[in-house]
Design goal:
Layout: H1 3-15, H2 22-35, E1 42-48, E2 54-62, E3 68-73, H3 80-83, H4 86-93, E4 97-100, H5 110-117, E5 122-129, E6 135-142, H6 150-184, H7 186-193, E7 202-214, H8 217-223, H9 226-246, E8 250-255, E9 258-264, H10 272-292, E10 295-297, E11 300-302, E12 306-322, E13 325-331, H11 333-348, E14 352-355, H12 356-361, E15 366-372, E16 381-386
Parallel strand pairs: 12-14
Antiparallel strand pairs: 1-2, 1-6, 2-3, 4-5, 5-6, 7-9, 7-12, 8-9, 10-11, 12-13, 14-16, 15-16
Helix pairs in contact: 1-6, 6-7, 9-10
Length: about 400
């Protein structure tokens, strides 16, 4: 790879003439390198992520194939494969690792045996430092007899700096998206990244509203260590969040043991009945998951009950707060009513209750539970429960 061809690829990276879609960018990058004379057959880039469950993402390109994209969770750090991987050396020591077909010392890395079995003659893993000091990695493999030349290795090293900057830009964007999705939800995260960051940026939308609460949480918190209570809450929320997301909802907020979620309704499509049906299915799945939840505390097994109120109405959705501390959430009479209805679930010993508006949209085998005065509302509200649910004894 001569210096002019190398500079052309470096300029392409630096000038930003690339797609922000990683797979497209990597394919374009590698094809340019091959056309310029670098004998790369397989290229990989491994980016560590700021995510509570994902250690990193990997992108693998091979000549003539589509880019493979994968994620790796933190459990990989404890595996024998990672302990004997060349990438561990890169991540932990920020060192290059070279492996050639005729080098007997390379037996320490089983991965290189796999590469040789596919015809590889040379391998080099090169650290990719980001500006924040974190170390990521690239791997380069060739099938050319004799492996990479000294000029090839020099070209690879010369490409790392611009590749690192491009990768960091894309990674920071993705990190921002993941953090926003994790802490405020994907719909709110997309709006924030889209520029809705000022107080007063609000939209009105119709949605099914989910508001739930764990029964007996105050007493639970009083008699158990705080660390145990946190573990219980995490398991308890897992029972709901999985079902909510699977059925098209978005979790907006955790409030102690409470959970607020919304299921947007497209007023132009007229899919209210379909959305509410999915909300009810999510409530049934959550009910079954919470009932099955058994948490060992010493020699005892803790069991749990919860209540969820379902309502449908218009909500104000957007930035609310004071000064430069904002919260992306929803408010409105519909949310207030859902919160009041959730309290009624405990009084009635019910797990799922629905407003009259929700029950009228989601035609189901409901049982009318009566009319109840609701604080802050001029009229009593008719409340419905599932016909197949046996009320529990009220605490």
């Amino acid at each position: 790879m001569n210096s002019s061809e190398l500079q052309r690829v470096r300029n392409w990276l630096i000038d930003g003439v690339w797609s922000v879609e990683p797979a497209v960018m990597i394919t374009d990058f590698c094809e340019r390198l091959v056309a310029a004379g670098l004998p790369v057959w397989r290229f990989g880039i491994f980016i560590r992520t700021l995510h509570p469950e994902v250690f990193g993402r990997n992108f693998i390109w091979r000549q003539g194939e589509e880019v493979e994209i994968g994620t790796v969770d933190f459990d990989v750090l404890d595996t024998p494969e990672f302990a004997r991987s060349p990438l561990r050396v890169v991540f932990e020591q920020a060192l290059e690792v070279r492996g050639r077909a005729n080098d007997p010392d390379d037996k320490r890395f089983p991965f290189l045996d796999d590469m040789r079995a596919e015809g590889a003659t040379d391998y080099i893993a090169v650290p990719v430092p980001f500006l924040d000091g974190s170390i990521h990695a690239t791997s380069w493999v060739t099938r050319r007899p004799g492996g990479f030349s000294d000029d090839d290795i020099a070209s690879i090293r010369a490409l790392i700096a611009p590749l690192a900057r491009v990768s960091e830009i894309i990674t920071l964007r993705r990190t921002a998206e993941m953090l926003l999705d994790t802490y405020v939800g994907n719909r709110a995260g997309a709006r924030i990244l889209g520029g809705q960051i000022r107080r007063g940026h609000n939209d009105t939308m119709q949605a099914a509203i989910w508001l739930s609460d764990l029964r007996g949480f105050t007493a639970l918190s009083d008699r158990l260590p705080p660390e145990t209570v946190v573990q219980i809450l995490n398991h308890y929320f897992d029972c709901q969040v999985t079902a909510i997301l699977a059925h098209g909802g978005e979790v907006l907020k955790f409030m102690g043991d409470g959970l607020l979620a919304v299921f947007p309704i497209d007023e132009y499509v007229g899919d209210a009945a379909h959305v509410c049906s999915r909300v009810l299915e999510a409530a049934r799945e959550s009910r079954a998951s919470v009932e099955a939840l058994a948490f060992p505390v010493g020699e005892a097994i803790e069991r749990f009950r919860f209540g969820v109120a379902l309502h449908v109405g218009n909500i104000l959705y957007g930035n609310i707060g004071g000064g430069n501390r904002l919260d992306f959430t929803c408010i409105g009479p519909a949310v207030n009513l859902a919160a009041r209805l959730e309290k009624i679930t405990g009084r009635l010993g019910r797990t799922v209750v629905a407003s009259e508006g929700f029950a009228n949209i989601c035609r189901h085998d409901w049982r009318e539970l009566g009319e109840f005065p609701i604080a802050g509302f001029s009229k009593a509200q008719r409340v419905y429960g599932l016909a197949d649910e046996t009320p529990a004894l009220v605490d």
